């Protein structure tokens, strides 16, 4: 059996997804809605909402290609592979799947360890999903220890996820940054906080994810997370995601490492992406089943 096949066997052995708790978004998250009353100047040092609302990110796609994070514009092979990967994710997120998944609109991008290709996969999956006609994509940089997505997309010092979770006066939508890629927007990581794990594990985080869907029923949220085996933050994020994309680097990630990562994802719908597989045929990809919605082979 291959690494991916053994990982899938591990998923099948796990318990069925547990029933999620009912959302308390309106009760917990109401404070994050715009407010008209005068704000305490001590509550925030900078008017992040006002500054972000006027911004529009122009993504340096040539720079991303030079860094190996985007394929050439006319690379049909990788484009088709991402179509294969995204389709079951979108079906679940929009409620058209055979099994209803709680919080399916929230998709966590995960890896066991650094260097698996998670950032490459998150960016390219976001671009591919944004081409859909009936959805919008919000790419959330939830990797606060190393916020690569925020830096790569040109928003390293912007307000973001952690600011929303700790500052009740911030308006959710005004912190989201539109980009020049139609259908794609960014929620940066925000300012570093020593209590990031506690913030991400809070009821406020759950309410935020629900609120994002309430604001735009067409929205799919992609959470770029830290490596599962190195931080507790990624495990907190897994609790709010309805789907998880686990990136596995071919001929690099040990079998036990994959299984250890999967042990933190029980009860989630897991998609396994085999990255940098140079031996697969150009059109190779694995099929679907109830335990893992898709397996993709990305040749990079």
Please specify the SSE layout and strand pairing.
Blueprint: H1 3-13, H2 25-29, H3 48-53, H4 61-66, H5 76-93, E1 106-111, H6 118-130, E2 136-141, H7 148-152, H8 161-166, H9 172-175, E3 177-178, E4 184-187, H10 196-200, H11 203-215, E5 219-224, H12 233-238, E6 243-249, H13 255-263, E7 269-275, E8 292-298
Parallel strand pairs: 1-5, 1-6, 2-4, 2-5, 6-7, 7-8
Antiparallel strand pairs: 3-4
Which range best describes the helical content: under 10%, 10-25%, 25-40%, 40-55%, 55-70% or over 70%?
Answer: 25-40%
Order of helices and strands: HHHHHEHEHHHEEHHEHEHEE
Number of domains: 1
Number of strands: 8
Please summarize the sheet with the most strands.
Answer: 8 strands, mixed
Mean of pLDDT: 80
Question: Which segments are poorly predicted (pLDDT under 50) over 5 or more consecutive residues?
Answer: 15-51, 280-295
CATH architecture call: 3-Layer(aba) Sandwich
Q: What is the approximate shape?
A: globular
**Fraction of residues in β-strands:** 15-25%
Classify the fold: give the CATH topology: Rossmann fold
**Helix and strand composition category:** alpha/beta
